[in-house]
Amino acid sequence: MDSKTPVTILQELLLKKKINPTYNLILNGGGTHEPIFKYEVAAADQTAIGTGKSKKEAKHNAANELLRIMKATDSAIHSLSDDVTSPYEGVLKENAVGELQDFCCTHRLRFPEYKLTRDEGLPHAKVFSWSCTISSFTTEATARTKKNAKQMAAQEMLLRLKDCLSDIIETEEALQTRSSPSKDVEMNEAVDLAIQKISDHIKTVNASEKLGVNISDVCFSMKDENLPDLPFLDSLKDRESSWFDTRDEDDIKDIFSKIAEEIPCDYKLNTVDSSDVSKVAVVLIVNSSPSWTFIAVGSSLHDAVKNVFTEAVKFMVKMRL
């Protein structure tokens, strides 16, 4: 029986109990060229969900997950081999974590934050879940290994971002071309000077101290000596993060406008499609040097706009700390 697929094994086990499993497709590809599918399988009072890059893969994973649940709760099938796995399980088709990191760099998004949210099961039948969060967006995936779960969460986030940003990439590129040449020259000179300072410092320290020199040192050198004074932005550095969260929409937009005028930079606000129909998603593109993109969601357009400007202001303040 071990050579059979999870769908076949589940069907045979349930037929002995005169139960027919029902499968429901709950996510049909996500509308992208790299689709993600989700199937839910139900039998009696037990359900399980499987995710995959094809309907067949998702269905197998759902059946496999339900088999694990049944084995833990039904003594009649304890003899089921632990080696029964989906033919797709363990096959990572690409490095989604790395691709997501590159995507965030390219489009100046906040880097993803990963969190292990589930670590359950017997030592020989572990189940892991990882969440991936960027701004207000969160995805989560479950697999039998931590690596697979993290990759799947990253992959789902990547597909979601590509779907959201597909309509505004052209706008972002247009804003990039309007960047001031003189500002770029000044920034390049600042970078060169900062890198030279770091290089000079490395030459004067021993090997153990060299390990502490990293890219953040370059940022601090640029910030302290080479960037222009930004008195209004600097006046916000002593504010607690929660203070920005309590500002209303008009107040936080006014704060952001003053910062944008002081830098100076222009910006563009766009609404984007959200996979959750109960939420509104917006993207704020800030054409500074470098440019940045912020994404936020809310229960209404006003909430989403407030959240995205709050995200941008908090980020800019943090960069000056």
Automatic annotation (TrEMBL):
<feature type="domain" description="DRBM">
    <location>
        <begin position="95"/>
        <end position="163"/>
    </location>
</feature>
<keyword id="KW-0808">Transferase</keyword>
<dbReference type="GO" id="GO:0030422">
    <property type="term" value="P:siRNA processing"/>
</dbReference>
<protein>
    <submittedName>
        <fullName>Interferon-inducible double stranded RNA-dependent protein kinase activator A A</fullName>
    </submittedName>
</protein>
<dbReference type="GO" id="GO:0005634">
    <property type="term" value="C:nucleus"/>
</dbReference>
<dbReference type="GO" id="GO:0005737">
    <property type="term" value="C:cytoplasm"/>
</dbReference>
<keyword id="KW-0418">Kinase</keyword>
<dbReference type="GO" id="GO:0035197">
    <property type="term" value="F:siRNA binding"/>
</dbReference>
<dbReference type="GO" id="GO:0016301">
    <property type="term" value="F:kinase activity"/>
</dbReference>
<dbReference type="Pfam" id="PF00035">
    <property type="entry name" value="dsrm"/>
</dbReference>
<dbReference type="GO" id="GO:0016442">
    <property type="term" value="C:RISC complex"/>
</dbReference>
<dbReference type="InterPro" id="IPR051247">
    <property type="entry name" value="RLC_Component"/>
</dbReference>
<dbReference type="InterPro" id="IPR014720">
    <property type="entry name" value="dsRBD_dom"/>
</dbReference>
<feature type="domain" description="DRBM">
    <location>
        <begin position="5"/>
        <end position="72"/>
    </location>
</feature>
<keyword id="KW-0694">RNA-binding</keyword>
<dbReference type="GO" id="GO:0070920">
    <property type="term" value="P:regulation of regulatory ncRNA processing"/>
</dbReference>
<dbReference type="GO" id="GO:0070578">
    <property type="term" value="C:RISC-loading complex"/>
</dbReference>
<dbReference type="GO" id="GO:0003725">
    <property type="term" value="F:double-stranded RNA binding"/>
</dbReference>
